[in-house]
Structure formats: structure tokens, C-alpha cells
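dumping these here so i dont lose them again. two proteins, back to back, each one seq then C-alpha cells. dont judge the mess
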Amino acid sequence: LATKVGIAGGAVYVAYDSGLLGGSEQGSVALSKAKAAIPPAVEEWTKYFGLEVKNSLNMMLPAAPKIEFSPVDAWNSGVQKSIHALSIAPTALCDYTSQGFQYLKDLTK
């Protein structure tokens, strides 16, 4: 249990430290850092585990896919949806309550 808690805590710390839990601008910076760091790391690990082909064929990994994702837009749409849900919550709760009372009245007839 302590190991799992330690790993989870470390993951949260790394996410916070790299800016993933911050605002949209920090998320964009973290995404660009990850795009720059992942290919060299994959190359290093393939060499470490001996997955690199030693002959003339030079097996290559496929190119990393282009990510057409804007954290700024995703963050803003998520915030807008959350605020919208919170703004209609009192009305929806009132409607559901009246529907529930009506259902109970219909059952007792």
C-alpha cells in the first residue's frame, strides 16, 4: 500500500511540477516539452533493451503523429460546460423535485 501511495504521490508531484495541473498556458508549454523529450527517450530505451537492428536495414520507428490539440480550447470548453451545468443546477433540481412529487402523488391516488 505504501508503494502505491508513493507512486501515486510521485505522479501527482511530477504532473504539478511540469505544469499539467496549472492553467492552459502551462499545459501548452508542458505539451511542447513532452513532444521534444519523447523521441530521444524512445531512442535511448530501444538501444538499452537491444531493440535496435544492427544490420543495414536500420529498422526505424514510425514518425510521431501530429497532435492537433489545443489545450487552451479544451480547457476553456471544459470550464464553460462546468459553469453552465452549475448555473442550470438549481432549475433542474427544482424540475426534478416537482416531477418526483407528481410521481408520488400519482402513485397514492
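---- next one ----
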Amino acid sequence: MLTLSSYRNTSEILNDHHFPVPSEFIMTIYNIVLYKFKSEATSEQRKYVKELIEELPSRISTLQSVITGEKVLNPLDHGYDMGAIFLFESKEKLDEFRPHQAHADYKTLSSPYLEGTYINIVNRLDRIAKELLDKMVFDMETA
């Protein structure tokens, strides 16, 4: 029986489970955030939250990039409306991002329109193998 300890590294796990991942992506930290808007949030307010998210890389140098998208209908999406994937080159860069004033401002400015968020940090893709059977399904379409 194979266990996680049977593998030498994350690439082996992902490839064995048919998730080919180029080696240059293995070190990237993926901070995945799902957003559930309040029912009374207008389309302008939703757009405003998305713009706040998309501005963050220009305000916080430790954030490599961010990808945002609206949900694609999926019966397992748990009611989330939008997703964002924040990319960092290391855990240290993620740790610098969290207390940054621009991150605090974004959270404060977006919170009146949000019912809740779900955050999952995939550390160098190590956790994907452990969570393959227990992942929340959320498909998103990026523009």
C-alpha cells in the first residue's frame, strides 16, 4: 500500500495522480480565497471588491500576482460567488503579506459586502496530495 511517505517529493505524488506539474511551479505558494457575497451586495459592490483584490500586487511587492474569477456553476461550490488565487514565491513572502497595511485596508474595505470567505493555502503544492479526496470543488472563469 502506498502512503505519502512512499513518495520522494510532491512532483511524484502529483504525477502519480495524473496532475503533471512543471518543476518551476513547485516552490510557489498558492493562497486560494473563495468569496461569498451578501445577498444585498450590488454588482457595483462586487466589482469594487474584485478591483480591490486586483490592485494588491501593485501595492504589496511580496505578492507575485493574483488571479480572480467568477464561479462557473457547480453543484459542489458551497455557494461561493468569486475566487482569487494569490501567488507568492515563498512562505516568507506570504508571511510579509499578511500584516501589510494594504492587505488590512483591502479586508476592511471589502468586508461590508462579504458574508464569508474560505481560505486555503497550498504550500508548495505539498498539501494537494493530502487533500485530493477532501477538496472543496469550485470552478472559476477568469477574464
